[in-house]
Amino acid sequence: VTVALIVTICISLLHGQGFAPAGQIPEKCFDCLCEAASECDEAAECFNKGPGQYLCGPYHISYEYWKDSGKPGENPDDPLDFEKCLNSRPCAEAAIKGYMQKWGNDCDGDMKIDCFDWARIHKGGPRSCNDTWILNTDFWARFSHCYTI
Question: Which cysteine residues pair off into disulfide bonds (predicted)?
């Protein structure tokens, strides 16, 4: 009972600080991540953008990202299942949720974790999400236009 009370208080404090749980990513955020990555081309297939850059689906997610997200999908031990998952928007969104639960943090220093942070993490990864290069990408231009409308 004491542990549950402490957890509830901590969650309330964090939520009051603007730290929304990553599992509660708003639909508008998903829509704008999709728009930023591929102009939400749901017919987008996997493509190789360079070393370590084999990206799949409308969110342009890599195998490593999918693996870090907990490998959502019907058969995570199938090496091709990640392609099937990421080419399906609901499964890709489960991957994004899992990835943000693992890596979500305040990338822009505004004392809250929100869709702007998730977009930075999605594009640059958890270790580069506060780098300024992200703000100079087509991804960021499309995302910020979409999310601020």
Answer: 29-115, 34-40, 46-56, 85-91
| Beta carbons of 68 and 99 less than 8 angstroms apart | yes
What are the structure tokens assigned to 127, written together?
Answer: 């270790």
Q: Give the closest residue to 57 by CA, choosing from 25, 81, 77, 85.
A: 85
Residue type, 25: I
* pLDDT digits 0-9 by tens, 65-74: 999 999 998 6
- Could you give the C-alpha distances from 8 to 2, 15, 90, in angstroms and in order? 10, 10, 29
- The answer to the question of residue 18 being in a domain is no
Residues 6+ apart with CB under 8 A from 63: 54, 82
Residue 13, domain member (yes or no): no
For residue 4, being part of any structural domain is answered with no
Residue span of the structural domain in which 39 resides: 27-148
**Residue 20 belongs to some domain of the structure:** no
